[in-house]
Amino acid sequence: MTATEATQHGRTGESPIAPAAEPQPAPGATPPRRPPLLAKAAAELVGAAALVAIVVGSGIQATELTKDVGLQLLANSTATVFGLGVLIALFGPVSGAHFNPAVTLAEWWTARRGGPGVTLREAAVYVPAQIVGAVAGSVLADAMFGEPLVKWSTHDRSAGHLLLGEVVATAGLILLIFGLARTDRLRFAPVAVASYIGAAYWFTSSTSFANPAVTIGRAFTDTFAGIAPASVAGFIGMQLVGVVVGLALVALVFMPGREVTE
Amino acid sequence: MTATEATQHGRTGESPIAPAAEPQPAPGATPPRRPPLLAKAAAELVGAAALVAIVVGSGIQATELTKDVGLQLLANSTATVFGLGVLIALFGPVSGAHFNPAVTLAEWWTARRGGPGVTLREAAVYVPAQIVGAVAGSVLADAMFGEPLVKWSTHDRSAGHLLLGEVVATAGLILLIFGLARTDRLRFAPVAVASYIGAAYWFTSSTSFANPAVTIGRAFTDTFAGIAPASVAGFIGMQLVGVVVGLALVALVFMPGREVTE
Amino acid sequence: MTATEATQHGRTGESPIAPAAEPQPAPGATPPRRPPLLAKAAAELVGAAALVAIVVGSGIQATELTKDVGLQLLANSTATVFGLGVLIALFGPVSGAHFNPAVTLAEWWTARRGGPGVTLREAAVYVPAQIVGAVAGSVLADAMFGEPLVKWSTHDRSAGHLLLGEVVATAGLILLIFGLARTDRLRFAPVAVASYIGAAYWFTSSTSFANPAVTIGRAFTDTFAGIAPASVAGFIGMQLVGVVVGLALVALVFMPGREVTE
Amino acid sequence: MTATEATQHGRTGESPIAPAAEPQPAPGATPPRRPPLLAKAAAELVGAAALVAIVVGSGIQATELTKDVGLQLLANSTATVFGLGVLIALFGPVSGAHFNPAVTLAEWWTARRGGPGVTLREAAVYVPAQIVGAVAGSVLADAMFGEPLVKWSTHDRSAGHLLLGEVVATAGLILLIFGLARTDRLRFAPVAVASYIGAAYWFTSSTSFANPAVTIGRAFTDTFAGIAPASVAGFIGMQLVGVVVGLALVALVFMPGREVTE
Hints:
Chain A has 10 helices and no strands. By secondary structure, the first copy, chain A, is mainly alpha-helical.
C-alpha cells in the first residue's frame, strides 16, 4: 500500500494522539491524485529495472576494481542501500514502490477482505512489470559494462544454509514493511527498507535476495551478483516461506486485533 | 520508555515553545493503543534475536570474504548500524526497543518513584525475553552459515583496557538515551543509538558490546563476534558500572531538577 | 527550481491532503526573501567549486593512501555523498543548488511556458558560474595536495559502454529531481540526490559524472578523478541525451497532465 | 548559538512563509528552559572529550586491525561522522554543541553587537572547557587501548599544502554553520556538520582538524590521529584564517543585510 492509502483507509482520527494526525514530512507523502494503473506499472517496471541495474552494475564495477571479495560485497551493499532508498522515496507515492512480487503478494493477501493494499487486478499488473523490469535492468547493467547482454549465471546458490538465509531475509523484510504499516509509519520506508537490506546483505548467508523478480533478473548475468538458473526456484520458494513467517511475526508483535478488542 | 510514554508523562505543554508541542514525525511515534505486555515481550525477544543474528552473522560473512581484519570490523559495524537502527524504529512503538537489560534496568531505576519508564513487572519480563532472544539469535546466525549451532567461543576478552572500554561504551549509551529522553527527543533514538554504536565499535577497545543480553548470546558462537564464557561476567560487571557513570553524566549535563527549580 | 518556488507556483492548496499543505521541515526550506541574482550566482559558483574540490581532492587522498582501486573509489564516492548532500542542503534555499548545467537547462526547458524553474536570464548566469566554479575547485584540490595547479588529465574515458553509462547516470538524476519536484518533495533533495550519486558512482560504468561543469573541471587535473580533454565532449553530449531520456521518463511515470485531466 | 536562540532572536514571524513558522522536528530542538552556564560548560567539556576520544580511539583501533592506510582513514572518518553527529544532536539543546573554539569565537564575533550567539562571558567559559575536554579525551582513548596516557605525537604536519587544507576545512565548517543559522535551519546541524567533516577528512590534505581544541588534544597521543606539538601553532593559525574566510563567504552568499534592505 502507499502512504496515501494508509492514510485514507487507516486508523486515522481515532484519537487526538494518533500518528496520522501528525504532519507527515517524510518520503511516501501523499500525491495530489491517485495515479492511474499505467503510471503505477511504469513505476514498478522502471524501479525494478533500476534496482537490478544497481545490484548487478555495482557488483561488476567492484570486481573490476578490487580482488578483495569482502570489499566487493561492501561496495555492492553500499550502492544498493543508497539506490534502493532513493527508488522507494521516488516511486513510493506513485505505486507504493514494491519492485518485489513477494511484497505485492503479501499486500494483496492481507487486503483481500478490505483494508489498504493492492487489488487482485493491480497485483496482476505489478508482478509482470516487476519481472520484465528486473530482466531489463540486468541487461542494462551488462551493456553499461561491456559484458554479454544475456549470459546465464554459473553461480550456484543451492546449499541448504543459503536457503535458510533467504527465509530469514524475506521474513525480516515483510515484518519491517507491515510493522511500519500497522503503526502508520510507512513514510519511513525509504530509509528503513534500504537500511534493512544493507544489513541483510551481510547477516544472511544468501546476501538477501528476498525478491523473486530480482532473483529472476540476476539469473541473466554471469557476473558477481548472478544466480544460476537452477538455483532460482529454490530461492523463490524460500522467499514465499519467508513471507508466511514474516506475516506470522507481524501478527505476533503488532497484533492486528488489538485496536479493536482493547 | 517509549516515545508515547515520554509524551504522556513528560513536560509537554509547559510552554508554547516546548518541544513536545511540535510535531513528532520521526521514529518512535505514538501507537494508537498501549501494547499489551505479551506484545512487548515478543518485541524484545524478536528484536534481541535479530540484533545478535546481525552482529554474529555479519561477522561470519566478513571473515569468510576477506582476510583484512579492519575490513571485517568495518563490515560488521556497518551492518550493525543499519540493522540496529531499523530494529529500534520498528519495535520502538511497541516495547521501547531496549533489547538490552542495562537500558531496562536504568529505566526502571530512574522511574521507580514515578515518571516514564518500565515498571518492575515489565522489567522482570523484558530481561529474560532479551536473554532468550539473544541466545536464539546467535544460534540462528550459526545455522544460516552452516556453523555448529552452539559452540562456546574461545575469544578471550578479559584484558583490563577492554574492561575500561566497556565502561565507556555503556556510559555513553546511557548518556545518549537518557539525554534524549530528558529533552523529549526519543524520536531520534533509531538513528542516534545506531550511529553511536557505529562509532563505539571503533573508538572503544572492546568494540562496544554495551549490552548484557548480547554479551551472553555472543558466548554461544565460536566466530568473529564471539566472547569466551569466562570473559562474560567481567564484561557485564563493567556494563553495570557504565550504567552508573552514564546516569551520573546525565545528572551533570541535563540536570533533572532544573525544570522544577528554575 | 527551489523549494520556495515549488511552493509558490505549485499545486498547493488543491486538496486538503495535498502534500504542500503539510509542514516542510526538511532541507530546501523557504528563505525569508527571494535572494538576488548575485547571491544565486555566488552560491552556484562556490557550490560547484566545493563539489569538484571534494571529488578531485578525495580522489587524490585515496590514491595516496591505498593501492586498492576498489577502496579508492569507495573513499571517493563516500566523500562525495557526504559533501554533495551538505552542499545541496546549504545552498538550496539560495539558488536551488544545481551546480550542474544539465539540471539548469532542464529546469529552464520545463519552465519556459510558465511554472517553477529558472528563467533564461538566470540560466545564462548560472551556467558560466558553474563552469568557473568547477575549474576553480579542481585547481584548489590540486593546490591542497601539492599537485600542479593545472595539468590536463590523461585519463581516457571514451569507450562506448562508458558513454552509455553517462546517459543512464544523467537520465536517473533528472528523473529523480523532477520526480521529486512533481510530487512536491524537493525538500528531500539533499539526501536523495547525494544518495543517488553514491549509487551511480558504482552502478554506472562511467562512475557517473552526470554534470557538464564538473566534467570540464575534472579535465584540469591529472589525478584519480580526471578526464582527458579529448573525452569531455563525448561525456557532455551523452549527458544531454540523458536529460532528454530523463524528462521522457518523468512524463511517463509522473504524467504532468494527470492533475488537470483527471 | 543554539536552535533555541535562533528561534528567539531570529527573523521568525516576518512572513507567513518564514521557515521558523514551520515545525522543527529535527535535532537541536528547543529545551524547556535555558540551561545554566554550568550545564553548558559540562556539555562542552564532555562533548569535546568524547569527540577526541572517538577520533583518537578509532584511529588506534584501525591501525591495530589493518595495514592499509586508506582503510584506516575510512574507519577513522566513518567513526567520526557517526560520533560527531550524535554529540551535536545530544548536546545541541544544552550548549549549542560547539566543542570548537573556532566556532565559539566566530559566534561571539558575529553576535557582539546583538543577535544570537554566545556572550563574552560564555565564550570565556566554553573555550577552556573545550580544551580541557579535548586533552582528557585523548588520554581516555590512550587508556582504553593500553597506550601510554600521555606521549607527545611525533607526527609532523607542517607542510604548506597541509596548512592550505586547514584553511579550506575551517572556512567550509564556518560557512556551513553560519549559512544554516542565517536560513534558520540549525536543526540540521547534527547531520550536516558530521557529513561535512566526513567529506573533509578526505578532500582536504590535512584530514580536516578544523578545531583548535581538538588540535591541542591530538598532540597528547603518539598514535594515528596525533599531531606533533611543533605543528600545533601552525594548524591553529590557519584555522583562524579559515574562520575569517568562512565568514566572508557567508557574507557573500547569505548577505546579512538582504532582509533589511530588500
